[in-house]
Structures are given as structure tokens and as C-alpha cells.
Amino acid sequence: MASGQSMDAMMQEFEMAATAEMFTNIVDLCLKKCINTTYKDADLSKAEAVCVDRCQSKFFEFYETSVKSIAARMRTQQEQQQATAGRQ
Question: Is 49:71 a contact under the CB 8 Å cutoff?
């Protein structure tokens, strides 16, 4: 049971780090792509707001797909380890 608990803790830590990195990447990428750096107006223009919305949507879709793929690989790996341990 202890290894299961440590695996859960590792997953939570990974998820927190991945979420923080994702947020940082979204901000960096979408700001560079969508926002005019001369800052003529205090508010986003409609075009900038639409660009940011599309940019973050694409990023979240990619993130969700990546997380599902990583989780599936980790489950497969864990099942293989448990099967190997059960044979010993």
C-alpha cells in the first residue's frame, strides 16, 4: 500500500508541476502571439481577445491529450510492474 500512496503523491506532484508549467507556457506563447507590445490601449482589442481565446483553447486541448497519453502509459507501466511482482 505504501508504494501506491507514494505513486499517488508523485502523480499529484507531477500534475501540479505540469499545470504550473502549462500556465506559464500559455501566458508566454499567447502574449507573444496575440498582444501588440506597444500597448496603445489599456484593454485588449477584440482581435487580441479572440486570438488569446483561440490560443489558450488549443493549448488546453494539447495539454489534455498529453495528460491522457502520459496517464495511460503510467497505468500500463504500473500494471506491468504489478504483474511482474505477482509472478515472483
Answer: no
| Whole-number Å distance between alpha carbons of 56 and 22 | 10
- DSSP H helical ranges for the chain: 2-34, 46-87
Q: Which of 87, 66, 52 is nearest to 22 (CA)?
A: 66
Q: What is the largest CA-CA distance in the chain?
A: 69
pLDDT tens digits for 12-52? 898 889 889 888 988 899 999 998 888 788 898 999 999 99
pTM of the model: 0.60
Spatial distance between the Cα atoms of 11 and 74, rounded to a whole number of angstroms: 10
Distance CA 87, CA 81 (A): 10
Unique residue bearing C-alpha cell 489558450:
56
The whole-number pLDDT of residue 1 equals 45
